[in-house]
Design goal:
The chain is an alpha/beta fold and about 210 residues long. The protein contains seven helices and eight strands. Strands 2-1-3-4-5 form a five-stranded parallel sheet, sandwiched between helices. It has a three-stranded antiparallel sheet with strand order 6-8-7, sandwiched between helices. Helix 4 links the parallel strand 4 and strand 5.
Length: about 210
């Protein structure tokens, strides 16, 4: 696997992203950069809609908004066949096992030689249809970023949202403005919009 394989590099350190991107290009990969998890999710969705899906995501464990294991979980819930490699300079002995439990396709501890990463990439069984979302043909998925009103307990709001109908993923984030990320599924845009309006109406403090 190399020529024309599309790789999304997710790391908040610009120098590391650029170094990896150059190494990917030299090995024949088409690499795109993202500085945080939310930008990465947006990029995955956009490229999939445009018919240019990513084949592999390489993400750092420590990101400004969502940690790498949570990003792995979100990606696999929506694109189970999209390959994800987690890299980290802060992982413990149990980190590789946590990546495996999250259905990750590889883990690499920093620092590492770029050749080691390209070697790991070349060993992946990549299918170009990887970034096709798992959902019914007529279903619609939407990300919802939630801000909790000042003075309210974010955990209480989280617990209220996590078990709502149509919520397939709910987790805490840290992007400076929002506290919770939801992934909603509905049969249509109208149904999804209705669920959002219903959540805003019924769940206090969002």
């Amino acid at each position: 696997m190399s020529m024309n394989t599309r790789v999304l590099l997710v790391d908040d350190e610009v120098a590391i992203r650029r170094q990896l991107r150059v190494a990917m290009a030299r090995s024949g990969y088409d690499a795109v950069e993202s500085g945080d998890a939310l930008d990465a999710l947006t990029s995955i969705e956009r490229h999939a809609r445009e018919g240019r899906p990513f084949d592999v995501v390489v993400t750092d464990m420590v990101l400004p908004d969502i940690d790498g294991l949570k990003l792995l979980s979100i990606i696999k819930s929506r694109y189970p066949d999209l390959k994800v490699i987690v890299i980290s300079g802060y992982g413990g002995e149990d980190t590789p096992e946590a990546v495996t439990r999250g259905r990750g396709d590889g883990f690499m501890a920093k620092p590492f030689e770029t050749e080691a990463l390209t070697s790991m990439l070349s060993g992946l069984d990549v299918r170009r249809s990887a970034a096709v979302a798992v959902e019914a043909p007529t279903s619609v998925s939407s990300y919802l970023f939630v801000t909790v009103a000042e003075g309210l307990d974010p955990m209480g709001v989280y617990e209220a949202l996590a078990y709502e109908d149509g919520v397939v993923y709910c987790d805490a984030i840290r992007d400076g403005e929002h506290q919770i990320l939801l992934l909603l599924h509905g049969a249509s845009h109208k149904e999804t919009e209705g669920r959002v309006a219903d959540l805003v109406r019924r769940v206090k403090g969002i």
